[in-house]
Amino acid sequence: MHRSPISVCWLRRDLRLSDNTALWHALNAGHPVMILFIFDSHILGRLESRNDARVHFLHNTLLGLHETLQKNGSGMCIKHGKPEEIWAQLIQDYAIVGVYANRDYEPYARQRDAHIASLLNKQGIAWNDYKDHVLREPHEVLKDDGKPYTVFTPYSRKWLNSLHDDHFREWNSEALVRSSQRVTNPGEPIPTLQDLGFESSSISIPPAYTEDDLIAHYDSRRNFPHMDGTSRLGIHLRFGTMSIRTLAQRARHLNATFLNELIWRDFYQMILAQFPYAADRSFKPAYDHIAWRNDPADFERWCLGTTGYPLVDAGMRQLNQTGFMHNRVRMVTASFLTKHLLIDWRWGAAWFARHLLDFDLASNNGGWQWAAGSGCDAAPYFRVFNPSEQARKFDPNGLYIQKWVPEWGTKHYPAPMVEHAFARTRALDTYGAALKP
User: What is the distance between the alpha carbons of residues 384 and 232, in angstroms, rounded to a whole number?
Assistant: First the structure.
């Protein structure tokens, strides 16, 4: 056992040394700090692909952090296994006096953290957690009666009206790391990607930066999928390789529409935290009575991008090949699956979870339930996107479609698998029957 007292900063969705709230507090606690990451076998075991690009990205990111720390004579402690077992061993091996972590609001994470905090407290070890993943936590923006909002517009209004400069405070953690010997060097080998049971991926990851010009013109460009009009920073916000505070501060000065997207992110985190049942059930319980068709052959055509609706097919092929889909097209493809094909939104949410680089449970769940009509949306269920009209409006010259569906317009491209007017009527009848008082 290592007898000198230490603090542990447990990284999870905050994989950076800069502007890291928990790391800053750990470095100021008065003891040497071990920076820990655990490749959670509970999570990795649910992934279907052995060359999952997200795992490859995580591994590369952690190697980069470790190499940066090594320049200062320290390094990362990276483990692989069940967190509860790893923490039990760490308690035996080290004289830990305090653990520091940034809060995670997903149901599994909350259960995990409660279990680990209880384990630590039984040993007299303090558990300290902080806000870092969001700008406004689930309990911060509430209605006047103290209840959570369930509609976005009044939530966003309260969010903005109660915003102040303290929400953008930068925690100068990286300077502390570089200017002191406060981070320990465990000296343990770093598990390889193969040790984790995974292989490298050929899918490229967008950089953790976007130009001011893109943010400044986001409102006028964001809906056109052929344009480079979105930031593609979702994966970096998901894993915390960039600070939400830094990005929101830029958006605050550059573009209100971009900032509004970050408010949506906080909103969906709040919904999942306040209503955890919505992770796998309809937020509006009546929608769990919809008589979904759930035709496996129809679902496969949607997954592969062979529906005969070119905008839908382009989006699905982009997703399958790159791990990304333009946000406007995400809405169209989700609406098509749930309304045109009457396939349960959970099927589509699971496909996105498997393929999206920027998969985030709260946002993915919120977006799918919005499309299905079962979520936090003030609009009634009869919104049904017409994919042909969406293509004419947002890809008028077919540039996006031609890129991903080269056979479009030839005899090799299939006819639409279902006629829009028929599908719309069928969806409205099915929803109406399920929601009848």
Answer: 26
